[in-house]
Amino acid sequence: MSDQSKGKTIEFTDAGKVKPTDYPIIPFIEGDGVGPDIWAAAQPVFDSAVEIAYGSSKKIEWKEVYAGEKAQQKLGSYLPDESLKEIETHQIAIKGPLTTPVGGGFRSLNVALRQIFDLYACVRPIRYFDGVPAPVKHPEKINMVVFRENTEDVYSGIEFESGSSECAKLISFLKNELGKDQLRDDAGIGIKPISPFGSKRLIERAIQYAIENNRSSVTLVHKGNIMKFTEGAFAKWGYELAQEKYADQVITEAQLYDDYNGKAPAGKIVIKDRIADAMFQQALLRPDEYDVLATTNLNGDYLSDALIAQVGGLGLGPGANMGKTLAIFEATHGTAPKYTGMDKVNPGSVILSGVMMLEHLGWNQAATLITNALQKTISNKTVTYDLERQMDGAKLLKCSEFGQTIVQNMR
Ligand code: NAP
User: Fold this and answer.
1) Fewer Cβ atoms within 10 Å of its own Cβ: the N or the C terminal residue of the chain?
2) Of the residues 78, 128, 155, 209, which is catalytic?
3) Residue 103 confidence (pLDDT)
């Protein structure tokens, strides 16, 4: 029997965890712009790590599915139904960046994927790799995992253009029925829905992650001092959820000081909250006091990009969009169109997204091999242009060479 025919769709436990698997079929989307370059560099890294860790007893069976410009050219649609079906069938995928088509009927392909599959948690681990040029004095103090709510907030797409008849209707309703007289007649309006359902399932995921990974705290990030019934409610529902479901495993920050003299008992996770603007300051001034962050959609978007910049930039920022069971792992940067086809950019983002994917499969040994080899490659100052231009005495590698060097450093 060939390896090819061993491929299986992953299965889940009742708790939504991936069951142990040896030959998973994993759909991949190369992506647009620099996508094909970073994917070509990354796939051999994943395959080598799995082979070194497990010999022939485990192997990923890759299955290309199309989205973005390649899909438009081959199948006449930016997001073909057959691609969506493959992802749904296999419950997992990894992707490069996708161009947002102008006039293609989508606000953004990424947002469409999140909505179609209800991928409610955007998970972005942010850590420092020793030797990466960073703009802050102590980037090594940053080790956070951001859980950003992905389906609600001002991203939900309920927006009306200034001057449109819909907007005029809404403004009239708000003024006449709800007494919001301060509204200007020429305003455009966006709606910010935040629900207990959406907030609690995201925060539950963040707390569950903290428990399973021995993390010390979960911080609820919000702008509730101003937006009480949306952002403020997010934090309130977070504390409620923690009490309802994890009373034995968590304490609040207030309890930490009132009852435990500022020192959390072993095994207890501290639930705290921060106003979003203060959190940006804290991320710069006292990053080592923060661990897992649970955020609303817009705050999480800004905060995760700011944090990744603090540790050295987008080329090394991994991410995953996760639903109840389905997960799509993705490079978090865009298509960097000016570098298309130049074999130049840093494939680290999609490689580290693959590390998250291997951990999701429970293949931690392969994941660790990649993380260590990436660290060694950076420590040896053999890096792509984005890092080379900021490092003294570094050797400039192409995108493909960076991948090959990681593979060599694994062996
Ligand atoms: P971008 O593609 O992320 O590129 C902005 C800059 O970031 C690049 O010019 C480059 O900086 C740096 N960069 C990005 N990826 C890098 C990598 N792998 N290695 C090293 N440096 C990297 O952002 P954009 O130009 O705003 O967006 C371009 C397109 O991507 C748009 O169509 C947008 O909609 C789309 N997009 C897609 C996704 C996604 O699919 N997840 C996410 C964001 C944007 P230097 O110029 O300094 O070298």
Assistant:
1) N
2) 155
3) 64
Please tell me if the CB atom of residue 132 comes closer than 6 angstroms to any atom of ligand 1.
no
Q: Which residue has the tokens 């799995």?
A: 50
Q: pTM for the full model?
A: 0.93
Spatial strand order of the sheet with 269-275 comes to: 61-64, 25-29, 92-95, 327-331, 318-322, 121-127, 143-149, 292-295, 217-222, 269-275, 250-252
Select from 32, 333, 339, 389 the residue to mutate for testing ligand 1; criterion: most ligand atoms less than 8 Å from CB: 333
Kind plus residue range of the DSSP H or E element containing 251: strand 250-252
Cβ(352) – ligand 1 distance below 6 Å? no
**Hey, what are 14's tokens?**
């009742």
Is any ligand 1 atom within 6 A of the Cβ of residue 110?
yes
223 is catalytic: yes
Asked whether 334 lines ligand 1 (CB < 6 A), one says yes
Whose alpha carbon is nearest atom 44 of ligand 1? 334
Cβ(336)–Cβ(384) under 8 Å? no
The position carrying tokens 């829905």 is: 193
Contacts of 362 (CB under 8 A, 6+ apart): 18, 20, 21
155 is catalytic: yes
For residue 316, which phi and psi values (nearest 5 degrees)? -120, 25
Q: Is residue 196 exposed (0-12), middle (13-18) or buried (19+ Cβ within 10 Å)? A: middle
**Bridge partner residues of 383 (DSSP):** 396
352-381 burial code (b ≥16 CB/10 A, e <16)? bbbbbbbbbbebeebbebbbebbbbbbeee
In tens, the pLDDT along 334-392 reads 999 999 999 999 999 999 999 999 999 999 999 999 999 999 999 999 999 999 999 99
Residue appearing with tokens 């009132």: 258
Examine the pLDDT at 1 and tell me if it is beyond 50: no
Q: Establish whether residue 68 lines the binding site of ligand 1, counting it when its CB lies within 6 angstroms of any ligand atom.
A: no
